[in-house]
Specification:
This protein is of the alpha+beta class and 187 residues long. The protein contains 4 helices and 8 strands, in the order ββααββββββαα. It has helices at residues 34-62, 69-94, 160-167, 177-186, and strands spanning 20-21, 25-30, 100-104, 109-115, 121-127, 131-132, 143-145, 148-150.
């Protein structure tokens, strides 16, 4: 005989919602390219490491050699260039990609989770007043948190008000004509 559990209510002992983090606060954003960024960077790192270990073996076994020292230096330099530059370039381009963004109401702080150089998660804590929008739109920057560039997709915020608060769009706009006239007179 098989026991049936239909109709049995299951309660959770947790008092927080599934999008609450005890340390960081409420989850307001989750990037949809997190696994892609991690996968591409991991693949780049692994192929570079494989290249570092296999190139001496391949060169010795195949007898690839050049008479000219200059040609040898150029060949090894080219191999080394792609071995080291590709992972570094990928890191520079994706280091500001925000995987998750949390907001703590009580302290008005945000915690942005990004990947660091060794592919582990790094938390950056900042206040809304630390957010600066770049004057010129940049390809991999939505805003600066203190001095660190961050990249988010505004359409992935489940609540648009969270994005507006992050960017400071919810603040009242104050324009003083007297100050503007004084500034023009000083020029």
């Amino acid at each position: 005989q098989v026991a049936s559990f239909q109709g049995v209510a299951v309660r959770s002992l947790s008092t927080s919602s599934p999008h609450e983090h005890p340390e960081h606060g409420r989850l307001v954003y989750k990037g949809n390219l997190a696994k892609v960024v991690l996968g591409v960077r991991f693949f780049s790192y692994s192929t570079s490491i494989f290249n570092l270990f296999m190139m001496p073996y391949i060169i010795l076994k195949t007898g690839i050699g050049f008479e000219s020292l200059f040609i040898q230096a150029a060949f090894y330099g080219l191999i080394g260039f792609f071995t080291f530059v590709t992972p570094v370039t990928l890191h520079v381009l994706t280091k500001g990609y925000v995987i998750r963004l949390y907001y703590k109401d009580e302290m008005d702080t945000y915690t942005a989770i990004t990947y660091n150089a060794i592919l582990t998660e790094k938390a950056t804590v900042f206040h809304q007043k630390d957010v600066r929008i770049p004057d010129i739109t940049k390809m991999f920057t939505t805003f600066y948190a203190k001095t660190k560039s961050m990249l988010v997709n505004p359409t992935l915020f489940p609540n648009p008000q969270d994005y507006n608060h992050l960017m400071g769009y919810d603040k009242s706009f104050y324009f003083n004509l007297e100050e503007e006239k004084e500034a023009d007179e000083r020029k």
